[in-house]
Amino acid sequence: MTALLTEIRHNRLLWLLVLVPGVLVAAKLKHDAPALLFVMSVLAIVPLAALLSHATESVASKAGDGVGGLLNATLGNLTELVIALTALRAGQYVLVKASIAGAIVTNTLFMLGASFLLGGFKHHVQEYNRVNARVQAGLLFLATIALLVPSVAVQRYDVAETGFIHPLSVGLSVLLIVAYGLGMLFSLKTHKELFASAAHEETGETPWPIGLALATLAGVTVLVALVSEIFVESVQQAAEDFGMGPAFVGFIVVSLVGGAAEMTSAFSSARKNRLDLSVGIALGSASQIALFVAPVLVLASYWIGPTPMDLTFWLGAVAMMLFSTLTASLVTNSGRSAWFVGVLLLMVYLVFAMALYLMPPREPATGSTARPPMSQATLPFGTGSIVAMANKGRSGPKSQSVGILGRPMRPTVQSDPQPLTKTVCSIDRFIRQRSAIITGPMMDQLPNRRATKKVSQL
Hints:
The chain is mostly helical. It has 2 domains: 2-358, A middle domain of Talin 1; 383-396 and 415-457, no CATH class. The protein contains 16 helices and 2 strands. Strands 1-2 form a two-stranded antiparallel sheet. Helix 3 runs antiparallel to helix 4 and helix 5 packs parallel to helix 12. The longest helix is centred in the middle third of the chain and has 33 residues, at 210-242. It is globular, with a radius of gyration of 29 Å. The N and C termini lie far apart (103 Å).
């Protein structure tokens, strides 16, 4: 306890811990001030993240960077899990799915890229265990494929034919949890010698006792969960005040605030040339969210959600997760990094963030994403599609249209679709005839295969 008090006394950043009880009290008294609660909750998470970083480094110095990174990722992801469960209970599936995808992209690109950048500013070239990075990238790729399958399948069928999406999501969730468990068995038990940390310089700092470090990890995690619940309750209204859409909030804001504790640990470790710990936190946290947190949320939605949630994401989010995984796999293949590698990762993340801020993806506010009916879908181009599009909306009772300014327009006279269908068919017949006239002589000039075969036999 003396070491903890000494750290708080000498680190001015930890003086912000007074905001933790302040935000808890303000949440009880100031219900109608979401912007104030939003700012206070963000500022309160910062010193908690610093404490979590110091405790994680102390555990890693005793148990190794691999175990320390896994422990930090597990405790850090409790924040994302609490935020997602709170939004899931409220039926905000857009925020839940955006926070899942955003956490994966943020940890893979922003956290890893900033660690490479900050570590590269102090060290010319840094080395780390590339086996751990490649295994985590492989698990991320597996999770991305599992999210891509239902997201693409739901675009293929109509609303009435998407009843298989929920059973498919449950089955994929079970498979992902099994894969995550087997991955932990592989890295911590059967082949743990492959995940040994690369050699690094000693920093000279005295780590905390293991008991104090574990107690600090547990206590800070509970406080982060409480503050995060206040954050998620105020972020929606605060985002509207700041002009941010729900997709940008879930994809960028929630993921950055929820991963503040892990980011602080990863950045501090990179500066101290312990890049194995930084890579383990960044990629380990992303794979844990994809393989464990997301499936748990799908299964939990059957009990705490208003409707079951599935694993269908909008295709833009799946593409971002896939490109993030491929980018991380590419840059970590060598086991060496420099500051410019971090710049490349951060640039990809900024491209995604800018696109989400300017063009937020649209998602239904329900647990599943269904393909629009055929009357609103793009039909295959051809004669049949022309007839279908021409006949669409021309039969049935008269309907009154509404103009741009909301004024009723003059009702249109519904015409018989048969003359238009005959006209389109006549056009198609004319095109076929002209094609026969053009290609007929060319077909006559082709050699007769049977005649050629008989001549060769003679």
